[in-house]
Amino acid sequence: MMAIQPLLSLFVAQLIGGYEDVAFYAGLACSLPPFVGAFLAPLWGMMGQKRGYYLTMTVSLLGSGIFIAAQSTAMDFTSLMVLSGLMGVFIVGFVPAINALITIITPANFKGRAFGAITMTAQFGCMCGPLLGALIANMLAIRYQFLVSGSVLVLMGIYVTFRVLSMRKSKHAQAREAAAQSAVAAQASREQRMQAYQTQIEAQNETDDSMSTAIAKDKDHDFKA
């Protein structure tokens, strides 16, 4: 987003065919995504709680990347505004998801450094994004900057998707291994109980045989007497 904003005024001037009132139209184009996102941010937070923050971050990255890249095809200011609004629907979901994930998966004694690292990364993005955007626009055209920025977000979304799938496979494998170990332990416990029960029955039978033998001897002795 930061790579696009410095060049947005020039792109808007191209779309409206001149620099008259370009400041007003560029301001509208810049303010529309945050305006839309301000109303939808709570919904993204609710989605993260219900569906998972990794899924929320993936959808946010993919959706915002697609609509940022689609802005490179805008032929007039109206289409640019529509695509900007759709981009605002998705891009606002990334920040709540990443903050929630840091809070959940980061140890308590490392949370401050984790949030500091995220802030540092964001500042580097704010610093390098406009420079790279200006370089791409100078070498190619302003439209290509939208395509490059959107492609980067889509690639990030794909990477997160594969990471989530690999994590789920690992969890499923661990769950199956734990279930197998539990089944083996349960079987061993049943066998031990059965063996103990058989031993108890054999001991009881030996006791009964001993008592029967003793009773028979006593009867035989009494009979002889």
Please give a quick description of this structure.
The chain is mostly helical and 225 residues long.
What are its keywords?
single chain; mainly alpha; Growth Hormone, Chain: A; 88% helix; 0% strand
Structure notes:
The protein has helices spanning 5-16, 22-51, 53-70, 77-91, 94-105, 111-139, 142-224. The protein has 7 helices and no strands. It has a single domain (5-168), classed as MFS general substrate transporter like domains (Growth Hormone, Chain: A), CATH 1.20.1250. It has 225 residues and is mostly helical. Helix 3 (53-70) packs antiparallel against helix 7 (142-224). The model has no long low-confidence stretch (mean pLDDT 80).
Compile the SSE list and pairings.
Blueprint: H1 5-16, H2 22-51, H3 53-70, H4 77-91, H5 94-105, H6 111-139, H7 142-224
Helix pairs in contact: 1-2, 2-3, 2-4, 3-4, 3-5, 3-7, 6-7
Strand content: under 5%
Spatial shape: rod-shaped
Instruction: Give, in order, the helices and strands.
Output: HHHHHHH
Q: How much helix is in the residues?
A: over 70%
Topology, number of strands: 0
Determine the N-to-C terminus distance. 114 Å
Provide the CATH top-level class. Answer: Mainly Alpha
Mean pLDDT: 80
Main sheet properties = none
Q: How much is the radius of gyration in Å?
A: 35 Å
What is the CATH third-level topology name? Growth Hormone, Chain: A
CATH superfamily: MFS general substrate transporter like domains
Architecture per CATH nomenclature, i.e. the level-2 architecture = Up-down Bundle
Number of domains: 1
